[in-house]
Amino acid sequence: MSSRPPTIADRLRDELIAAAPQHDRDASLAIQASGLVKHFGEIHAVNGIDLRVRPGQVFGFLGQNGSGKTTTVRMLTTLLRPTAGEATVAGFNVLVDDRQVRRAIGVALQEAGLDILQTGRELLRLQSRLYNVPRGEIEDRVSHLLDVVDLSEDADRRIGGYSGGMQRRLDLASALVHSPSIIFLDEPTTGLDPISRQNLWDYIVRLNREDGVTFFLTTQYLEEADQLCDEIAILDAGEIVQQGTPDGLKSTVSADVIYVQVDGDEEAQQLAVGALLPLPNIEDARWDFNEGIAIYTRSGHDTLPLVVRTLDDHELAFSNLRLARATLDDVFFKATGHRIEPGDQAGQSAQPAQGGPA
């Protein structure tokens, strides 16, 4: 029997494969990206991102709104076509194997696509059937997920009557119904109260450790990244500016940070930084609009008296002098030159327009 003639879809697939840049691929990786780029007209949302995520990792993207986190997730989940570069997810190329990618992953994006006329239980039942969950397992799985996201008591109410936080939790449950090997969570705990947030963290840890599920997590919560992630990439202006384990990243910043508010204008701040930088044990000093001057040192107790004496010698008035241990916030500030704003941390920043950079 002769083989069927190639269809238009076959030819398009072959053209896409031939046109894709050929980088070294590692089939053992859960997620791999090489030179991933996305432009929206004149806006360069993502500028050449490389990723290597191992199976079983919780990999975190840490950055402010507008840094390119959501755009990257949309490309990796086949919802946006890259301007350049290539990526594989679960071993499948996102450009030409989009259906296989979607079968292998679970996705919870910032914008929940929920039918407000359904009940929470009906939505999860429907999702289970769409993902071919065995019929005999559906009810147990739906009940378990409703309990995990603390919606059991509201399961038979219409989604239109849910609060924003409840809809967010239901959307997360819907991403888990088919037990995917890789789960993409885009700002998963935005809008959740502290108890619900902790419950979700616990469930992520349990899925990761007991079932080996790989998580790709975008977040603005420093504590979330620190507690959950095996590896973190700090994203700024569409580029990865620093990457490593939470402890490894914190080790790149001095053990202690001295914060001091210096009175005066920008010239006074520059004078203070210039005077402090030559002191022994000081590795860096930067002015931060929110915190004052941040002084990074290996020995805060030894350096603190020198800071006071130097500012006095230069006749610079100061206040709010304090010593703290270095945190991921300090790593982020040192890598990007700014901090994640309190509004971002609380999830209050405006959401990007559909299809636009984020």
Give a verbal description of the structure:
There is one protein chain. This protein is of the alpha/beta class. It is 37% helix and 25% strand. It folds into 2 domains: 11-115 and 160-249, P-loop containing nucleotide triphosphate hydrolases (Rossmann fold, 3-Layer(aba) Sandwich), CATH 3.40.50.300; 254-325, Alpha-Beta Plaits. A 6-stranded mixed sheet has the order 6-7-8-3-9-10, with helices on both faces. A 4-stranded antiparallel sheet has the order 2-1-4-5, with helices on one face. The protein has a 4-stranded antiparallel sheet with strand order 12-13-11-14, covered by helices on one side. Strand 1 (31-40) and strand 2 (43-53) form a beta hairpin. Helix 4 (120-130) packs across helix 5 (135-148). It is elongated and about 75 Å long.
